[in-house]
């Protein structure tokens, strides 16, 4: 029943290694690009917070509060309380990179305003994904302990698949927010035209982290399917 897995050799572990390498590379790449273009102060001297306020006001989102949060690249838009949260590395910085990140988060606020469908779908998936992320692996382990109970294992795998689905749905949300940011910054109100390509590189690198996360999680799902598919009687 266990095949080669019963002898301690699991060739599917290479999928985990591949996913880890991809994720580490993507993380390094986004930090490398942010740090590189964080050295370029925008010639207009606008801070990330000021840029965000301008973009939100222009979009008719004056009610959205901008907060400063601790950390580096911990920027986010919270659709629950309608707040834009900018990290220490973005809030008061006048760098091209910081303005790009702030504009990206504003893109999420505008998506929320316009009821962007993928964003709504992602929000709807959150409860199920939270359940999947917390219960999938424990269910699979319990199924193994109970003599390879395929019902529990299958339910666990389906719950894990919800995590993959969530990350796939996240991709258009992030790419669209970056597209909105670049379009806004290309208007010339906040950046000079030769500074916009720098923002594209920063946001392009950031988008790769979401692609890497989706690939890594999908590889983990594939590994589970291969292991327990091979272990069926």
Describe, in plain words, how this protein is organized in 3D.
- InterPro entries: Zn_peptidase_2 (IPR007395).
- This protein is mostly helical.
- It has one domain (3-230).
- It has 7 helices and 3 strands.
- The protein has helices at 13-37, 48-58, 88-91, 96-113, 117-145, 150-185, 196-230, and strands at residues 65-69, 76-78, 83-87.
- Strands 1-3-2 form a 3-stranded mixed β-sheet.
- Strand 2 and strand 3 (83-87) form a beta hairpin.
- Helix 4 crosses helix 6 (150-185), helix 5 (117-145) runs antiparallel to helix 6 and helix 6 (150-185) packs antiparallel against helix 7.
- The longest helix has 36 residues, at 150-185.
- Residues 1-7 have low confidence and may be disordered.
Percentage of residues in helical conformation:
55-70%
Domain tally? 1
Class of secondary structure makeup: mainly alpha
**How far apart are the first and last residues' alpha carbons, in Å?**
6 Å
Over the alpha carbons, how many angstroms does the gyration radius reach?
21 Å
């Amino acid at each position: 029943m266990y095949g080669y897995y019963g002898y301690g050799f699991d060739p599917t572990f290479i999928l985990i290694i591949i996913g880890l390498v991809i994720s580490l590379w993507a993380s390094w790449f986004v930090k490398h690009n942010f740090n590189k273009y964080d050295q370029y102060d925008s010639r207009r001297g606008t801070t990330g917070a000021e840029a965000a306020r301008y973009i939100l006001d222009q979009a008719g989102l004056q009610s959205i509060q901008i907060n400063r949060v601790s950390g580096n690249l911990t920027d986010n838009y919270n659709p629950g309380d309608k707040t834009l949260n900018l990290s220490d590395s973005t809030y008061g910085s006048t760098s091209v990179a910081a303005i790009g990140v702030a504009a990206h988060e504003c893109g999420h606020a505008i998506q929320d305003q316009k009821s962007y469908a993928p964003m709504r779908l992602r929000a709807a998936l959150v409860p199920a994904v939270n359940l999947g992320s917390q219960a999938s692996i424990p269910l699979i382990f319990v199924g193994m302990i109970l003599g390879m109970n395929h019902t529990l294992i299958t339910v666990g795998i389906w719950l894990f698949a919800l995590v993959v689905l969530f990350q796939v749905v996240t991709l258009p949300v992030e790419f669209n927010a970056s597209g909105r940011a670049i379009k806004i910054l290309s208007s010339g109100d906040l950046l000079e035209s030769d500074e916009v390509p720098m923002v594209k590189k920063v946001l392009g690198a950031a988008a790769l982290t979401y692609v890497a996360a989706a690939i890594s999680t999908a590889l983990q799902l594939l590994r589970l399917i291969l292991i327990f598919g091979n272990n069926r009687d």
